[in-house]
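User: I'm curious whether this sequence folds into something compact or stays loose and floppy. Could you predict its structure so I can see for myself?
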Amino acid sequence: MRLAKGDRLVKGGKKVNSVIWAACENVRYRFVCYYWRSDGKLKYVGCTSKDYKDHSGNLLGRMANYLQNHREGATNKNVFDAVNLLLEHVEVEFGRFHFDSCKVGDRLFTYDQVSGDGDLTYMIENLLIGFYKSKGQCEWNR
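Assistant: Here's the prediction. I'll summarize afterward.
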């Protein structure tokens, strides 16, 4: 999903963020790794590694936290503010990682295995963050 230069994230739910809601509400993989990207560089990598019972899917639940919940930790507000700051100048893309399989050590994991296990998803998130940080990206990840 691409947000155009000049767009803004608005604090609130589906009515004020219908494009984001539509992009996330039909993702049926239980756990996913996602990113925020601009100018060809990843700014942030995150994941859904727990269940959000109040939403139709975990990615939608996670996005709802970015858009509605700025009390629980600094990450939600920091990413929300950073996306809006970028949108003043450039397009921003939100997406999710997808792969056929991923080899870690001597183990091969399929996407279906990872997306069904929150611990595996969290492990992949950390591998992605480390990899992209080594390339000078993921500046919003601490």
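Summary: The longest strand covers residues 41-47. The two ends are 24 Å apart (CA to CA).
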